[in-house]
Amino acid sequence: MEFDLIEKRMEKTIEHLEDELADIRAGRANPAILNKVMVDYYGMPTPVNQVGTISVPEARQILITPWDKSTLSKIERAIQKSDIGINPTNDGNCIRIVFPELTEDRRKELVKNVKSIAEETKVAIRNIRRDGIDEAKKKQKSSEITEDDLKSSEEKIQKITDKFINNVEEIINKKEKEIMEI
């Protein structure tokens, strides 16, 4: 049985969840929100973190200091075109992104979105479980493994699934707390 493959697929699902959650801003400045912002740098789309230094000087502010000052306006334009929903401020030396305080309604909306992403992740993990169990059943039908092996494989796959579902719950609870903090 390919238990390692099942675990690797579930780990990738968790990684995807973490990437999705990094894009959801919780009122605090998180440089990960800029991961998908691409700057036109000498004709090539380049991630913003490769054209300058990104720092968080205050809890609700991101500071981008480009290595080449001529890219300031390009970085500013790239952030404005992105879907992060915050306007950057260009002071001639660096770009500041100030995150406004989230309203209670917006926080609840974000939590609802987080729960939806969590549910999609759990479904993906359960689909991986189903694939693993189907594979074990095929092996049992073709007499590659015994019925006892099938039962123990199903139990092991279920234990792996439970572990990853609990992992999703922990990640989601942490993100919800982060969003609801005032």
Describe the structure.
The chain has 182 residues and is an alpha+beta fold. It has four helices and six strands. The protein has helices at residues 3-22, 72-81, 104-141, 147-180; strands at residues 38-41, 44-47, 52-58, 61-66, 89-90, 95-98. It has a four-stranded antiparallel β-sheet with strand order 3-4-6-5, covered by helices on one side. A hairpin with a 4-residue loop joins strand 5 and strand 6 (95-98). Helix 1 packs antiparallel against helix 3 (104-141), helix 1 runs parallel beside helix 4 and helix 3 runs antiparallel to helix 4 (147-180). The longest helix has 38 residues, at 104-141. It is elongated and about 70 Å long. It starts with a helix and ends with a helix. The model has no long low-confidence stretch (mean pLDDT 87).
Category by helix and strand content: alpha+beta
Biggest sheet: strand arrangement: 3-4-6-5
Low-confidence stretches: none
Task: Determine the N-to-C terminus distance.
Answer: 48 Å
How large is the count of helical segments? 4
Helix content: 55-70%
Can you give keywords for this protein?
elongated; 56% helix; single chain; alpha+beta; 182 residues
Explain the layout of strands and helices.
Blueprint (H helix, E strand, L loop, with lengths): L2 H20 L15 E4 L2 E4 L4 E7 L2 E6 L5 H10 L7 E2 L4 E4 L5 H38 L5 H34 L2
Antiparallel strand pairs: 1-2, 3-4, 4-6, 5-6
Brief account:
The protein is of the alpha+beta class and 182 residues long. The protein has four helices and six strands.
